[in-house]
Amino acid sequence: MPAIQSAIASSCCKPRDAFTPPGYALPALACDSHAHVFGPFQRFPLDENRSYTPEENSIERFRWHLSRLGLQRGVLVTASAYGLNNSILLDALGRYPDQLRGVAVADRHTSIATLIAWKETGVRGLRFNLYSISGQKIYRNGVGLEALEALAPGMREAGMHAQIWVHAPDLVELEPRFRALRVPVVIDHMGRMNVSYGADNPGFLRLCAMLADGVAWTKLSGADRNTGGQPGYRDIDGFAARLIAANPERLVWGSDWPHINYFKDSDVPDDGILLQALKRWLPDGTRRNAVLADNPATLYGFPML
Description:
The protein has 305 residues and is of the alpha/beta class. It is 34% helix and 15% strand. The radius of gyration is 18 Å and the shape is globular. The model is unreliable at 1-7 (pLDDT under 50).
C-alpha cells in the first residue's frame, strides 16, 4: 500500500456481517489476538494527524464478532488513527476485564508508574510501528525504535512485551537490536511478508530464527494483506509452514478485524476463510487449539483452563 502523506484516506468498507463457517469446532477460550475498535467518535474521536478514517466499530460490535465465530477472548490494539490516545482501549478493558487484553501505544516519556497502571487494567504490551517499504513510512503516528529502546527498562519492570509492526526483510538489520531489548517481542502479521518476497527471504528467515530461539512470537494474521490473490490464501501456506516448524509455541492467531483500509466490499476478508486457512496450516487439532487458546493465554496473561 502506498504511503499516505498529503490527505486522510477514508476506509469506506465495513466488516462482513455474514461469514463462511470455519468447518471445525474452536476450542474453549479461543482468542482473536489482533483486532481494533473505533468509536463512537463522539466519545472517542480520532487523532487529527491520521492516515485513514475508519468506520465506527465499537467494542460491542467486536464482542459480536467474537461470539459469531465461536471465540471467547480478544486482544485489542490501539490503532494508529488514535495516535497516543489509548482511551478507547482502556475503557474496553475496564468494562470486560475477563474477556479482553490490550496492546497500547506509548511515547518515550511514558512513566513506569503509568505502564504498571495499564498492566493492572489489562494492557500486556506496547505497539511500535516500524513498518516501511523501501525506507518510506506507510502510516502516520507510529512510535519508533528509539522510543522502544528508551521504554524497554520500564517494560521489563511492568512485565510487558513489545508488539512490533515491521516488514520482515528489515529484520536483517533490526534483529540484533530487538534481541538486545530483553523484553519479549511479538511481530505483527507474520512479518507483513508479501508473497512476492518468497519464504526464503533472509529477513523472514531471521523471524523464524527468533521464534526458534524463543525470543519472539508472531501472529498468524494478515494473510489477506500478504497474499497475491490466491483463493483461500493458499499462497501463504509456505510462509505459515516455516513459522510453525520454527516454534508452534510462539504463535497466536488474529483476524485483524475490522479489516480497515479496504476500499471495495468484495475485498474485505471473510473471517471464516481466515480460520479455514489456519486449519489447513495446522491440521493437528492439539497444535491448532494451542495457537487459538493456550498460547494467547500465556502471552496475554489470561487464566488457563
